[in-house]
Amino acid sequence: MAEGGRQKAECPASSAISIQPSAVWAALASVPDPEIPVVSITDMGMVRDVTVSDAGRVTVTFTPTFSGCPALHVIRDSIEQAVRDLGVTDVEVRSTLTPPWTTDWINDDARERLRQYGIAPPAPTGEGQLIQLDAEPTRCPRCGSLNVRMTASFGPTLCKRMYVCDTCREPFEGFKSV
Amino acid sequence: MTTTPSISGTELTDTQTRALLLKLTVLADDEIILAHRDGEWTGHAPILEEDIALANIAQDELGHAGLYLSLAQTLGGSDPDQVAFWRGPDDYRNTRLVELPKGDWAFTMVRQFLYDTSEALWLEAATRSTYAPLAEIAAKAVREEKFHVQHTALWVERLALGTPESERRTQAALTELWPHAAQLFQPVEGEAELTASGILTDLNAVHARWSDLVTRHLVDKCGLTLPDAPATQPGRDTHTEHLAPLLEEMQRVARQHPDAEVW
Question: In this protein, which residues make up the domain named PaaD zinc beta ribbon (chain A) (predicted)?
Fold first, then answer.
């Protein structure tokens, strides 16, 4: 599909650099999540769409993880910069709320990196009830035990909770299932 | 406060737009004022985990206010920062429930429980709004609110069934807060028309579900006693003496540096 020479021949008047959406996706895959730098914003499923117009304008649509996430401005700026670094001058970053972000979009590879980093990856969300007093089962990222206790239902960022493992005695953070 | 819904909803009439602007403002005002009261616990909560939890909850509520006010802006409302930092107590439309001083830990948890349950139930119903941008906001926010409800329901239970002192304080908090909670279910001017067209959810139905939920938790599970709620009470334009000093503190930096762009 990527036949740069042929495309150039078809659009001789355009001075804009022709870029494929796949190249933009690849660039965004190296933008880290500002709060959990072992995963990227594409690993997290935050980038929802990339389009390139005939005139070369790149539009990236992303969705926030939590509506009050203080890193949103950083993420927006990082996306714009990553696309500009490809030589694109016309960049638009849009945000959308639909469909709402879910931890089910975090890919398997990223789940493993979260675990190695010491963060328990999120359980599948399922169709939970609105009022749920029991939290989802969580496995210690260090020793794999399910014998863990939640010590705080909120953590250092909006997306995490605090646990302690009663088998290996280590405290750890766990992703909420959202 | 920059998130903008990407798809527009049904065409609104001028009357509907005015009423919806007012509704979004009252929703946002409750979130902003409660978030400020929660934020007053930062550095003062009984344990570190709760300090962090309450800051998280406040952050979520501010996020929701940002969503409401960004939508209001697309309907002709002012910039969200202008709305938050440049209106005085006469123009704020929050309930008296959220502006009362933070009190003790029981007062804070009971208030948050009453508020979170009402917000979660309202949002859940609002996901079915015929106005797409509002349904989208509700679908986003309700997922976050679920964690608040879990947290505060557990705290109220722990305090009510804890020691005689914690029970006494929890009952005292409920007795003081209960009459104010009814204010959360006062419709805004023009709300009936928005409900008839499916843009807003039926507030009476939400109220009934909320009464049922909180009665089951507070009375059946926690053994607390619900006082009588007043039959009528003043609207959202009537505030206690506590709102003005709150706003003075909250808005001080913005007003001292009106041209600041980077915080």
Answer: 134-176
Distance (Å, rounded) from C-alpha B203 to C-alpha B210? 10
CA B166 from centroid of its chain's CA atoms: 25
Question: Is 0.80 surpassed by the pTM of this model?
Answer: yes
Q: Are strands A91-95 and A58-62 parallel, antiparallel or unpaired?
A: parallel
- Dihedral sign from CA coordinates of B39, B40, B44, B50: negative
Dihedral pair phi/psi, residue B89, rounded to 5°: -60, -30
Q: What is the C-alpha to C-alpha distance for residues B151 and B120, in angstroms, rounded to an integer?
A: 13
A40 backbone dihedrals φ, ψ, rounded to 5°: -100, 170
Per-residue tens of pLDDT for chain B, all 263 residues? 334 343 355 589 999 999 999 999 999 999 999 999 999 999 999 999 899 999 999 999 999 999 999 999 999 999 999 999 999 999 999 999 999 999 999 999 999 999 999 999 999 999 999 999 999 999 999 999 989 999 999 999 999 999 999 999 999 999 999 999 999 999 999 999 999 999 999 999 999 999 999 999 999 999 999 998 777 889 999 999 999 999 999 999 999 998 887 76
Q: Identity (one letter) of the amino acid at B104?
A: D
Which phi and psi angles does B262 have, rounded to 5°? Answer: -115, 130
In the structure encoding, which two tokens stand for residue A43, read together? Answer: 């690993």
Which residues of chain B lie closer than 8 angstroms to A72, CB-CB? 2-3
Distance CA A71, CA A73 (A): 6
Taking contacts as CB-CB distances below 8 angstroms, the residues of chain A near B2 are 72-73, 76, 95
Amino acid symbol at A146: L
Taking an 8 Å cut-off on Cβ atoms, the answer to whether A131 and B213 are in contact is yes
| Burial category of A108 from C-beta neighbours within 10 Å (exposed 0-12, middle 13-18, buried 19 and up) | exposed
Tell me if B219 sits within 8 A of B51, measured CB to CB: no
Tell me the C-alpha distance between B66 and A95, whole Å. Answer: 14
B contacts of A178 (beta carbons < 8 Å) = 143-144
* B4/A98 CB distance under 8 A: no
Burial class (CB within 10 angstroms; exposed 0-12, middle 13-18, buried 19+) of B128: exposed
Amino acid at B177: L
